[in-house]
Batch of 4 targets.
Target 1
Amino acid sequence: MGIYERDYYRRSLPKAGFGHFSAWSVTTWLIVINVAVFFADGILHRADAPSTFDPETFDSRVSMTQWEIALMGPLERWGYLSIDKALRHGQVWRFITFQFLHASSWHLIVNMLGLYFFGPIVEAQFGARRYLGFYLSCGLAGAVTFVVLALTRVLNTDAATPLVGASAGIFGLLVAAAMIAPDVQLFYYLIPVTIRMVAIFGMLMAAYSVFAFNQFNAGGEAAHLGGGVLGFLLIKNQHWLNPFVSPRREMAAVGAARRRRRNRGYQKDWSKDFNR
């Protein structure tokens, strides 16, 4: 069955669906915000760099984590997540702000492509408000997973290690999209694969990186794992997202669904008359 024949697609806004760019969708605005923050941080960093970081005078004995933080733009320094900043210094806003920051242009491009492809499927399933709650909650789950695994020494990292990127929320979208439309095909290096295959492979690689390999980007993979797990749980328990919708809107949606079911029950199957 093609994506345009699926029930979730027909329930979406006009012309919405897999990889569709709608001017007023939450997915579009999330992409715009992420890109705008990245470029604004780059502009501010270029103006701020001479006063905050000088490679010639920087102490070469400091850790790689300190180097990484010193090379950040001002928005990224203000918003990245780490155990030291978020817990020890009480800067809890970082559990949200890190989701809108990216370490490089390639990091941004990969994440925005994931948001562009998988976001519309999940947004059509939940509606704007619950979708936004879903996305931010999966990102938050990724941050919590990173913190918990670091504190329990599952991750080989220190308290100052920074975490940035939208990929925890996007892994939640990937897993959710794989459950809503598992057989929709993507092309990975010209090889056709389904969303379900991508989700399974991505989650297995994240688990391997965290629990077996625990080296390059293990913190990021821990966030992927947490976002994906919560995405799965929210698809299985969609009522958990009801607090993101006002009771009046929820009642209106329930009433509209009941009317649609009642109207479908009254419709006559005219095909029998024409097929005689």
Note: The chain has 13 helices and two strands.
Target 2
Amino acid sequence: MKRGNLVLVMFLTLSGIFSVLDAQTACKVLKTEISWSYTGECRKGLAEGSGEASGVDFYKGDFVKGLPEGKGIYIWENGDIYEGDWKKGMKHGYGIYTFTNNNRDSVLAGEWKRDVYMGNPVMQHYVIEYRNSIGRVSFVKVGDRPYVRYKFSRNGIESLNINNLFMQGTSGAESTTASFTGFEEVKFPFKGKVMFNAPNSFQSATLTCELRFIINEPGSWIVTMFY
């Protein structure tokens, strides 16, 4: 290669490197503690998209308009770590904060709002995951003994006109007697599944009914299925 061409290639290569470095330098992070250096996506001179930023602290994750926003992990100079949701440079949404308190590792997991820990979200007493050919379901807590009892209702009246009953639960002893159908001595949260066949309102066809649910709160529960 001729000397002139070699010099030109070296010039273009160095120009490209300096252009990249200049672009990285021009891409700013607006959170002072991580504003010393940045590597990642950029838009209009600000960190935007996925990237890494460092200063006295370190952050890796999503950015919007120069600030952590979205999902990311932040490591403080003292070793504290937060991994979770961010908004406008603050912990906001669900996240896990690990820190040292009196020489012991401590964890705060739950909802955050503008850098303030709000606590764990309130757990629902029960959740219906799926139902088929069942109009509605009633969950009633009647005591403290750990059981889940099933009742079946047609037109507001308890009905035993069902066939091929199938019950499944994550704990407890299955029981089917004249006075009790369900699970006794269960542990909560309890995840259950019930399937059965029953005639429709006009007695002209057979329904395949199914219910899947979770009960989180311990106690004595009566689950009534209206089909």
Note: Residues 3-119 form a domain with the Histone H3 K4-specific methyltransferase SET7/9 N-terminal domain fold (CATH 2.20.110).
Target 3
Amino acid sequence: MFRHKQVSWAVIALFTGGFVTSVVAQEQKAQTLERVEITGSRIKRVNAETSSPVQIITREQIERSGATSVTEVLKSIPANNAGAFDENAVASFTPGAGGVSLRGLGAQATLVLINGRRVAPFGFASGGQQTFVNVNSIPLETVERIETLLDGASAIYGSDAIAGVVNIILRKDYSGLMISGSAGQSSYSDAAGGAVSLTYGKGSLASDKYNVFANVSHNQRDPVKASERPTTASSDFRRLGLTDLRSSYAYPGNLYALPSTSSAGGAFVATLAGCTPLAEAGAAANGRCIYQGTDHQDIIAKTQQDSLFVSGVVDLGGGLELFSDLSLTRTKYQAESPSYSSSTYFSTGTLPAAYITLPIGHPQNPSATSEVGLRYRFMDVLHNTSVQSDTQRMVFGGRALVAGWEAESAFVYSHSATDVITTGLLNDSVLLNEVLDADGKARPTFIFGNPAANDPGLMSRLYPTLHDEGKTSTTSLDIRGTRELMQLEAGSLSLAVGLETRRESFDSTPDALTASGALSVLGSSSSNGSRSVNAAYAELAIPITKSIEASLAARTDRYSDFGAATTPKVGFKWKALPNLALRGTYAEGFRAPSLTELSQSPVRGFYTGIRDPKTCSDPADVTNVNCNLSVEAISGSNPNLQPEKSKSLTAGVVFEPADNFSIIFDAYRIRRKEEISSIDIDYLLANEAQFPGYVIRNAAGEIDHVNLQYTNLGSTQVWGYDIETKTTVNAGEHGKLGFLVAYNKLPRYLVANVKDAPEVDYAGTYLQPKERFKFGVNYDNGPWASTITWNYVGGYLRAFTPSDLSCSYSNAANELCSVPSWMTADVFVGYTGFKNLSLGLSINNIDNRGAPIDERRAARYTLFNSAYHNQLGRYMSLRGKYTFW
């Protein structure tokens, strides 16, 4: 299904048979009864359709989706593109966390709000650099709806709202007692998960003048190894057109005659006791111990979340309301990753050779006359990452009618504390000084592959348990108000104004051993900073004629570290016909340098496979070491950074040819400049003269290391369009039929690595699909409700850059030179015919489609990228909800 690389919006329109959506009639009527605030504007209005595009995911849609987390819900948004990630991202700087990336501009360019206000970011930075809100920390059971603003909004909300805003609205004004639960597992009989939730509410704000609401919930999911899926059942990927990644650097290990060089292999001698030798017809590695990374790579992590949410509101009369809410959430994450080998520690410069020399007389050396080399996998302690993240959010506020103003003020305290525990990595000095002797050979007292035979104290020093801590907080106080200033001939002139002050802090502390550089396979950085932010904004809605409304907004933010930023926004909406409206916006935006970018300690890393153009004139010269270098890179903070800046344009059409039938088309263009990043190393080496002091060379002219301090460098420009269509058809006694299409096209993703460099189009290259869409059909009849949803992700090339499209795979049938498009279908069936009881069955990926092969993920043993795909397979979950009153 849909094997072609692109799907035009016209095809989607035909595919839906011309059906496209608006909100259900009852919802439309409700909107006419009161003025509401829509994400992207602080002005309350009767008409919820503003000049900016906003997509809404309702509570009902969430329940029908089968999603188990906010991250899963957000991953289904077609505009969520490159730069998004979830807790299953392998080798992540932010284990256990999830981030959303509208327009593919990265999680740092998408502002995430809860009830329209900021929350503290995750305790560690994405890529070691950029801060973001961990949407995994928001319990799904507490969410009423999710509003996604697909437009720049710094003029309303300040920093980070370059690509858009995700506003998560929490539940409120519920009365009753309800218990709900779910249980599910995959078609492979694994990934078992379940949830239980208790919800209580009392009072109606409309009739009782108060409401209290409380929810406590728990959910969890079991892990899945890569070896438990057909594509990665074995690390021998030759059947897929790739290479055999099974390794003779195994556990307990293989013995070889000493080679003539430190990295070449000698003749095989024997295995260490305790391994099961490979016995496979025609296999070159027969008789050897084999390590399969797929046996030790979790593609679905073990997760658990426990949360408590309490809120209350009371109407004191005279237009005065007081409100408050408290949320406490604890998320846990645990995943295993492949262990490192002696070859790895040789490549980092720790070991003198890719093997470990067992001298004559070592109890594991079978030869009485010669030394042997041991190819070894250091997995006496497995390589595990465990994360516990605690988040707290407290809000106290009030609303009042004051001299014609609808005023609101709130104090918010948000805190995040994350502990990361890592095991299974070696302390280099213990390996060199206590496992090996002064000659770099194994001490006879150390037994490989049998940890019980060694001194427990030595083993604990060799495999230390590492503790990293990340703590963040955001404390804010805001006051805002909106009112109609005057009645003009064309309508009401409305104004919204606001003041905000907040304090941000970020404290990321690695384990002392990691910070000291004691583990060569693990880089580290620390960041400790805080700052204050004060802001003022104003927004004006101006009716020009009965059919044309303009909006103006401006905001000034003053940061205690870098200074001030002022951002304007202009919008218009023209109702050209009773059922046709045109709209558009121009917005400027900014992203303040994160506290990690301003205060982070130097980060040491390595780039491999680097060619130095000064000392390697012929890239094909395999004898020249400068043609294939491992280059140390030092990156870190820069206190002189300035904000990233953006300009965005949107233009759209809203067409409602009939009741409950709408077609929405919005085109967008965003240009972000002064981007904060480390310069691309290939670009740096090719243009070294332009960046003095960045490349450090030794006396022989060879590269010693490079300095890649964060700098305001290049720019990115994206443009594309969204289509959203909805319709509801009431067939009387035959039920109600609804259709939904949400489509995103991203045909251009233009990048300039440095200022004034030519723009290069990355659209369609690695992790940059040009299109995504979601198509859903609802059918409700009496107590029965059903939904089927198709989710489509376009394909993309394996090439990182459009200038390098080389691919060594000639078999086009394997599609290894690109990652193919992927479409899955989800089904929901619900029944409410029992008194107080509702049941639902969700089947996600109903035809059990495996993720498309991503060859670049072979080294991680997963062969897929979790940003767009998953290897969960068909997943069935049964849900129940019982209401006591």
Note: The first strand starts at residue 54 and ends at 58.
Target 4
Amino acid sequence: MAKIALFGAAGAIGHSLADTLRQRGENYRVVGRDRARLEKAFGSDPKAKIVTWDPDDPASIREAAREVDTLIYLVGVPYNHFELHPQVMQKTLDGAIAEGVRRILLIGTVYPYGTPVSTPMSEKHPRDPVTFKGRMRKEQEDLLLAADAAGKIEGVVLRLPDFYGPGVEASLLDDTFKAAVEGRTANMVGPIDTPHEFVFVPDVGPVALDLAAKPEAKGRWWNLAGAGVTTQRQMAEMAFAATGKKMKIRVAGKGMLRVVGLFNPIMRELVEMHYLQTTPVLLDDTELTALLGKVKKTSYAEGVKQCVEYQQRRGSSR
């Protein structure tokens, strides 16, 4: 029986968690709206049990959470409908509590911190979101932590910076890796020389699962920082150097995002979050490493190399 369920499993972090569970020989449940997508991603793994759900149907949520000990919450919503984040979290919480789920670990973001008042930011940094998306993410966290404080369920938040990895399309760097392999101009969101950090997606699974297993982790949030400070330009330079092609980049600033946003609603949403590109938003994960011990962090050089090699394999298989 699967004691761990990945709600919203079909995304990049879900794959990292599933890979880790598979390597550890553990059964697990993958939960999502689209069965075909789940079958494509996890159907070949005998350790995975595929379950579909409807977050608007309480009975469906309860069935997906039945006999689960630990629920890893990865549920996404459309980028232009962040008001759904607290709504879906509340519905999931209600179903999980009704089914006796012991713990929920939420994969969170830096959005609730808002504009940094100190760098790097530890868990003691105030959560003072300056955007609607940040407020919705904070409200989502607060629902989980309030349920923990009330003794209804154990709640944990693992906070991540921007991420990247082989085949991870929801990344600022995805087009850069593709362009480096194809020899074309990379489209980037700037400015690209601001100090930045990225977490390598395959590194997240082991950290999240180890954190979920720690009783003392409950009732709070934990930061996972990247492999150090870099910039988008440095990442692009490594990618093009890995392919031996001349670096060509096209950088869209806030003004260009506004123009493109007139025709593309998702790009329009990036305007609100543009402070993440102009202000260094760097995490301090000293407390996490003190709790878990050594945390594997793939170097940017190795991570970029793996991303480029993935795109090269993908191109040669077409």
Note: The chain has a mean pLDDT of 94.
